[in-house]
Amino acid sequence: xxxxxxxxxxxxxxxxxxxxxxxxxxxxxxxxxxxxxxxxxxxxxxxxxxxxxxxxxxxxxxxxxxxxxxxxxxxxxxxx
Length: 80
Prior knowledge:
Layout: H1 3-7, H2 11-19, E1 22-29, E2 32-39, E3 42-49, E4 55-61
Antiparallel strand pairs: 1-2, 2-3, 3-4
């Protein structure tokens, strides 16, 4: 599955896939808490409303450019 395929799924199917992914980071963006997940071969941003703690929407992407807002939050583990 690709990021575009994920974006075309219904909300409940998206939630199911995100729950199988790995949470990597969190950032604040205006009225949202945004959590970054790694799901299969792409990333998903999950936008929670700060006032209600309800998921408003999700957005999947595959490129590294959209990772910039998270760069200091993503743990990088170096092997030995």
